[in-house]
Write a structure and sequence with these properties.
single chain, TIM Barrel, 7-stranded parallel beta sheet, 11 helices, 38% helix
Amino acid sequence: MSTETLQKSTEQRQPKPKWLRVKLPTGKKYTELRGLVDKYNLNTICTSGSCPNMGECWGEGTATFMILGNICTRSCGFCGVKTGRPESVDWDEPEKVARSIKIMNIKHAVITSVDRDDLKDMGTIIWSETVKAIRRMNPNTTLETLIPDFQGSEKHLDRMIDVAPEVISHNIETVRRLTRQVRIQAKYDRSLGVLKYLKENGQRRTKSGIMLGLGETREEVIQTLHDLKEHKVDVVTIGQYLQPSKRHLPVQNFVTPEQFTEFREIGLDLGFRHVESSALVRSSYHAHKHIH
């Protein structure tokens, strides 16, 4: 299916099924963290991305922070982050993120970033310094780094391996056939190669995520799970794609809870350590469990 066909079918947008209703976040811990985020103007992808699992994750002491600005050099068809010319690097950012984690008393932090293909180091120096600052200021906080592909550069991937986060993740996002439309400047095999390199050279727990509902077939999802397993991935998250705006790729179908359960069982049978699979699952859902 071409991008043009996908975009044309936007007009026939389907209503969201009942299993996609999001519960409003509540609870003492959530209220506490919400207050801190507002008071100190802290930047979390949980709030800026309006994540449906924010209440649950914050209640468990997990939060996700995005570094290197909020403008991406890539223009993926699924992603709500702005595309364009990014701002200059904020060299104080590692300390700011580490301080935010300390203020919020986060037990497990997930760090992610936009793609910075405009930078010679692709942002990996800031990435490395951020992990070091978090370790220094929050010695008991565990870490997951959800990284871009850094164009597959081993030199840049080595920077991430050297700082040794408990979990290192990179999302494949979709099946091979749809990669060109969904992740315009990315490559399916390059992402698989990145995951394998991280595992073989870093000996860290590796993780990847897939979105469903973009027109992939059941067989393609199963093949993607096989591909991830063959490339030594430990943890997989599978969730429903939701269109961020009219400019983005439309939802082709809503995957049923039964289908998500089936994919979870297939993944576990393949030998993944953890498989999170349901409509509202996002990359950092239950992230604190994936270190064990």
